[in-house]
Design goal:
Blueprint: H1 3-7, H2 14-17, H3 25-32, H4 47-54, H5 65-83, H6 90-96, E1 112-116, H7 123-131, E2 138-141, E3 151-154, E4 156-160, H8 167-184, H9 194-198, H10 204-217, E5 222-226, E6 232-234, H11 237-242, E7 250-252, H12 255-266, E8 272-276, H13 278-284, H14 288-294, E9 298-301, H15 311-321, H16 334-345, H17 349-363, H18 373-382, H19 388-396, H20 399-402, H21 414-421
Parallel strand pairs: 1-8, 1-9, 4-5, 5-8
Antiparallel strand pairs: 2-3, 6-7
């Protein structure tokens, strides 16, 4: 046994053994980053093929400090959740069987965390890459305590909250994702929830409870619910403007879903990480009883790059981006380009990549094989024209302008950001 293993607070728990070692911050960065192969002798590649090579840039992922903290939060919650569900303990099986009195000693409920960010800032990607730091999504145990034969452990599951925000549709998403994960693990086509999914009339609460029982018996490590803003419906633009001083006004579609999530944490001890845009997260934070439960494991705000000179952009993201110039003559003034990119995208990573690709489309229409600053300006006005109004609103920081876009609505998260940013 290594020193790290002997010092681990989870030694001997077979649910945790398959997760691999606890990563240092440097190891987490290496696990999270992905850099597509940069161009080699781009001038030798025909113009019509370069754009196809360049599209690999969509897979680029350069973790910020906040992304690394998301990975740490995910790992803390997953391992801590398993600490309370050691299958060698009789009380664990009592709990799986639905015996609420199985735990005779006081214990903390499962942890939850919240990741918020405007569309395109990388919140979902950060979580998914954190989950992918584990060797596999489904661990197959050749033998398992109190069971005969092999048993499958589901480490993580990620689903979108449905656009309807309703429990039956959420349950269907959970069941479908479960069957797909089992199938991808090479366990054959999973039909565990086929009967439920085939029903025309669905009982949302019953389906959620059935999925939860399966998740418990297969020791789900952590559940990721993305697009939490779909739990709420938004007031009209006119109504939002009239309520500007009071903050965003959203009403819950079906409170059954949120009650079920809290029960999942408090009673069934499955950790949950939620992610969404500021409008939905702002609605979640309206009740202290709710917000204190869903940020107990961590709170992470993934914001656009604030300025062209911010270290996360200048020294990390943009520095790598410059390597992906599929032209013979790269941009002659990188510093000017750095400022221009922030101006045209408001620092949103997804838009930056889209602009980079679009600028190459403009550049490759010429024959001089060069990339110029004006190519980025033309690309923004031609290919990114539909988002320019939102970019201007976001760059301005003006709540009145941002209120026109439901997922740009600002909210005050200063306390939670401060609480979790120093780790």
């Amino acid at each position: 046994m290594s020193r790290a293993d002997s010092e681990s607070p989870y030694a001997g728990n077979i649910l945790i053994e398959g997760l691999g070692p606890i990563l240092t911050r440097q190891e987490a960065y290496r696990a999270l980053i992905y850099l597509p192969t940069p161009p080699q002798n781009a001038a030798d590649i025909p113009h019509h093929l370069r754009l196809h090579h360049l599209l690999s840039l969509r897979d680029l992922h350069i973790p910020s400090g906040e992304s690394a903290r998301v990975q740490q939060t995910v790992d803390l919650m997953t391992r801590q959740g398993y600490r309370y569900r050691d299958p060698t303990q009789a009380k664990t099986w009592g709990h799986v069987g639905g015996e609420h009195g199985a735990h005779k000693t006081a214990r903390a409920p499962a942890m939850a965390a919240l990741v918020v960010g405007h569309s395109g800032t990388g919140k979902t990607e950060s979580i998914l890459r954190a989950l992918n730091c584990y060797p596999t999504q489904v661990i197959t145990h050749a033998s398992f305590p109190r069971l005969v034969g092999e048993h499958h452990q589901m480490v993580s599951l990620s689903v979108d909250v449905p656009a309807s925000g309703r429990s039956a549709d959420l349950a269907a998403n959970l069941m479908t994702a479960w069957d797909i994960a089992m199938d991808k693990a090479g366990l054959g086509p999973s039909m565990r929830f086929a009967t439920n999914l085939a029903r025309e009339r669905r009982d949302g609460q019953r389906m959620l409870d059935e999925w939860r029982q399966v998740a418990l018996s297969h020791f789900l490590g952590i559940l990721h619910l993305d697009e939490v803003q779909n739990f709420f419906k938004l007031a009209t633009l006119k109504r939002r403007r009239s309520k500007l001083d009071e903050g965003a006004e959203l009403s819950i579609v079906e409170d059954q879903c949120l009650r079920w999530i809290l029960t999942l944490l408090n009673t069934w001890e499955i950790p949950v990480i939620l992610s969404g845009t500021p409008d939905g997260v702002g609605a979640l934070t309206k009740r202290m009883s709710t917000i204190q439960r869903i940020v107990g494991g961590g709170y992470h705000h993934l914001s656009p790059f604030k300025s062209p000179d911010h270290p996360d952009f200048k020294d990390l993201f943009f520095r790598q981006l410059l390597r992906y110039q599929y032209v013979k003559h790269p941009v002659s003034d990188p510093d000017a380009l750095r400022h221009l990119v922030i101006e045209l995208t408001a620092g949103v990573p997804r838009l930056i990549v889209a602009l980079w690709f679009a600028a190459h489309r403009v550049a490759l229409e010429r024959t001089d094989d060069s990339l110029r600053l004006e190519d980025f300006q033309k690309a923004a006005s031609r290919y990114l024209a539909p988002v320019q109004t939102a970019v201007i609103a976001l760059r301005s920081g003006d709540p009145t302008k941002m209120m026109r876009f439901e997922d740009l609505m600002p909210f005050d998260d200063g306390f939670w950001a401060t609480l979790w940013s120093a780790s």
